[in-house]
């Protein structure tokens, strides 16, 4: 199972948070997650958003097996290819 969402306002997008919060159980699920973000700087919410996703997934019994951050205003095509290669080897 893979979750992906944009960073908004230095956090996981509110819609994705609301969606993930209402999932009842991720017991025995291996989960990879990624966020996309506009700015290439560390302090603009990517790590926070990933940590928010991790916390929700783990609180629902899932195991996070991979995470990735894609910078939208960077070399995003290359980062997406790397993400696909990394994530496809996880399951
Ligand atoms: C309302 C809003 C808030 C955003 N806040 C951030 C932010 O705090 N940090 C960041 O790196 N990018 C931010 N972005 C940029 C998005 O993360 C980036 O555009 C997105 O990952 C690409 O998906 P999109 O097609 O929804 O724009 C924001 C975008 C929007 C629309």
* Percentage of residues in DSSP E strands: 25-35%
Note the main sheet.
4 strands, mixed
Q: If helices are DSSP runs of H or I spanning 4 or more residues, what is the number of helices?
A: 3
Provide the number of structural domains.
1
Note the gap between the termini: 9 Å
Number of extended strands: 4
- Which strand order spans the largest sheet, edge to edge or round the barrel? 2-1-3-4
Radius of gyration: 13 Å
What fraction, in percent, of the residue positions are helical?
25-40%
Query: Structural class, from secondary structure content?
Result: alpha/beta
Corresponding CATH architecture: 3-Layer(aba) Sandwich
Shape by Cα distribution: globular
């Amino acid at each position: 199972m893979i979750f992906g969402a944009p960073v908004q306002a230095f956090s996981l997008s509110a819609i994705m948070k609301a969606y993930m919060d209402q999932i009842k159980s991720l017991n025995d699920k291996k989960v990879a997650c990624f966020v996309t973000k506009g700015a290439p700087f560390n302090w603009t919410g990517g790590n926070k958003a990933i940590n928010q996703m991790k916390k929700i997934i783990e609180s629902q019994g899932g195991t996070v097996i991979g995470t990735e951050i894609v910078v939208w205003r960077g070399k995003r095509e290359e980062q997406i290819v790397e993400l696909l290669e990394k994530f496809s080897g996880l399951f």
